[in-house]
Amino acid sequence: MALTGPMMAALKAAMDDFRPPWVTPEKQEHLEEKCLADWRYIDARVVQANDDLFYVTFSPNLSACGPGLVLLDGGVVYAIDGKGRILAEGE
To answer: Which among 35, 10, 12, 8 is positioned nearest to 24, based on CA atoms?
Structure first.
């Protein structure tokens, strides 16, 4: 799947809000926190609603990080414009 420039701007804005760049797995104490700080265990989806509105969804997949790890309420959906400005955020 190819991402357009506005889609990339929306994804970057959501990524920086969901997990700020200074949050790294190495700096976390607990396994769950390490997993949440590692993009390999976060599923992402970008949907373009119209020319200037994108929805970015992040869903942690902790079961891929370690056996028995479950997170019941860790996902988020962002509404972001084509310039990368977050318009709304919710679960």
So the answer is: 35
* pLDDT 10s digits, 12-71: 999 999 988 898 999 989 888 888 889 998 999 999 999 999 999 999 887 788 777 766
Q: Kindly state the tokens that stand for 91.
A: 């679960």
Cα distance between residue 83 and residue 13, in whole Å:
9
**pTM to 2 decimal places:** 0.86
Question: Amino acid identity of 77?
Answer: V
- The tokens for 88 are 């709304």
DSSP string across the chain: ----HHHHHHHHHHHHHHS-TT--GGG-SSHHHHHHT-GGGEEEEEEEEETTEEEEEEEE-GGGTSTT---SS--EEEEEETTS-EEEEE-
